C-alpha cells in the first residue's frame, strides 16, 4: 500500500511544461484545480469545485469539468470509478496505483501497481495489457469483514 502524496503544483514545474507543450495556457484556475486534486487525494469534480471556491468563488462547475478533462488528456490526473457517484480524480504525480474500495465502510485504499505484477503477468500471457490506473476492486476490508463473523 502507499500513502497519499500530495505535491504542491507550485513546487513542481513539470505540470506547467506539460500544459505548454500541449498548447494549453497556464491559468490561475488550472493551477487552483490541480492544487485541489493534489490536496484532496481522490476527489469528485464537486469536491474539487468546493475546494477551489474557498479561494476563488468565481470558478464554476463547467470550468472544473473542462479543466479536469484537459489535465487528464495531458496525463496529470486520472479518474477512476470508486462508487456509483461521479468519477473520482487523483494526481498521477508520485506513483501509479489502483484502488480497493470497501463496500462496508466505503474506505479507499491505494495499492501500488507493482503489487499486481503476478496478475499483470497472467494477462500478458493472454496478450492483454491492463490499464491498472483505472482499476478499482470492490470488496470488504479486514475491519468490516471481521464485523460479519
**CATH fold group of the largest domain:** Arc Repressor Mutant, subunit A
Computed over alpha carbons, the radius of gyration is 17 Å
Structural class: alpha+beta
Distance between the termini: 25 Å
By DSSP (H or I, 4+ residues per run), the number of helices equals 6
Percentage of residues in strands: 15-25%
* Total strands: 5
By CATH, the superfamily of the largest domain comes out as Winged helix-like DNA-binding domain superfamily/Winged helix DNA-binding domain
Overall CATH architecture of the largest domain:
Orthogonal Bundle
Instruction: Please state the overall shape, judged from the principal axes of the Cα atoms.
Output: flat
Largest sheet: 3 strands, mixed
| Level-1 CATH class name of the largest domain | Mainly Alpha
The average pLDDT score comes to 85
Poorly predicted regions are: 1-11
Percent of residues in helices: 40-55%
Supply the number of structural domains.
Answer: 2
Fill in the keyword field for this structure:
single chain; 149 residues; 2 domains; disordered N terminus; Dna Ligase, domain 1; two-stranded antiparallel sheet; three-stranded mixed β-sheet; alpha+beta; Arc Repressor Mutant, subunit A
Layout of helices and strands, plus pairs?
Layout: H1 14-21, H2 28-40, H3 45-55, H4 61-73, E1 77-80, E2 88-91, E3 97-102, E4 108-112, H5 117-125, E5 136-139, H6 142-147
Parallel strand pairs: 3-5
Antiparallel strand pairs: 1-2, 3-4
Helix pairs in contact: 2-3, 2-4, 3-4
Amino acid at each position: 500500500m502507499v500513502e497519499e502524496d500530495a505535491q504542491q503544483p507550485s513546487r513542481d514545474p513539470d505540470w506547467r511544461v506539460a500544459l505548454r507543450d500541449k498548447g494549453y495556457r497556464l491559468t490561475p484556475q488550472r493551477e487552483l484545480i490541480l492544487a485541489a486534486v493534489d490536496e484532496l487525494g481522490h476527489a469528485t469534480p464537486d469536491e474539487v469545485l468546493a475546494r477551489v471556491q474557498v479561494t476563488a468563488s468565481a470558478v464554476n462547475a463547467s470550468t472544473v469539468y473542462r479543466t479536469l478533462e484537459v489535465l487528464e488528456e495531458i496525463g496529470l490526473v486520472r479518474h477512476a470509478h470508486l462508487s456509483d457517484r461521479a468519477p473520482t480524480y487523483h494526481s498521477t504525480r508520485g506513483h501509479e496505483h489502483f484502488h480497493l474500495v470497501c463496500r462496508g465502510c466505503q474506505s479507499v485504499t491505494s495499492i501500488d501497481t507493482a503489487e499486481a505484477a503476478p496478475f499483470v503477468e497472467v494477462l500478458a500471457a493472454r496478450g492483454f495489457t491492463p490499464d491498472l490506473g483505472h482499476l478499482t476492486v470492490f470488496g470488504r476490508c479486514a475491519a468490516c469483514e471481521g464485523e460479519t463473523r
